[in-house]
Amino acid sequence: MEIQSAEFIISNSDVNKCPVGNIPEYAFIGRSNVGKSSLINMLTARKKLAMTSATPGKTLLINHFLINKKWYLVDLPGYGYAQRGKQQQKEIKKIIEDYVLEREQMTNLFVLVDIRLEPQKIDVEFIEWLGENGIPFSIIFTKADKISASAQRANVQRFLDTLHDQWEELPPYFISSSANKAGRDAILDYIDQINQSL
Fold it and tell me: What is the signed CA dihedral for 171, 172, 176, 178, rounded to 10 degrees?
């Protein structure tokens, strides 16, 4: 898939104010500091579409970007950022849950996982919650350029083995790097395939 246009449409904290219509939406979520904004900018080939920041946890809203006038890329707030106060954590949790559970246009949720780390409890629990609620999702392992190919394989396998404890069938997954554009074509082709099947 070629990205010909990518335009910011709206930011808000209320799922009921998201764009109306039946354009498919592909949402991106992950722990704070997983590299979500960089990945979105890499996928869309736009350097400043999503705001990247040295301070994790900056995305506090649901951000809709219209891609090729055909589908929405949705940037969701990150989960699990400890520096937020309890009240803000609660608000973010509600924004995420309302969107994921209520947004009928959401066609697939991409869960971003830092490939360098041991399986994180918060990621595994979030994925289990998606399964319990029947949410269609895929996993994107980020920051692949930071470790060797053999370490990538080992860490991905460790994460998948952890999921196997709860899952019979594992979701699709991708290995990506915003630095060298690894995984870009595979992720965009996957979105394209889903769009064509709708």
Answer: -80
Cβ neighbors of 25 (< 8 A, separation 6 or more) are 64, 71, 72, 73, 74, 103, 105, 106, 107
Q: Which distant-in-sequence residues (6+ apart) come within 8 Å of 126 by Cβ?
A: 79, 111
51 lies in a domain?
yes
Condensed to tens digits (0 to 9), the pLDDT of residues 44-90 reads 999 888 876 555 555 688 999 999 999 999 999 988 765 667 888 88
Residue 92 lies in a domain: yes
Does 1 map to a domain? no
Instruction: Give the total number of structural domains in the chain.
Output: 1
Q: What is the CATH number of the domain that holds 56?
A: 3.40.50.300
pLDDT at 174: 98
- 103 domain residue, yes or no: yes
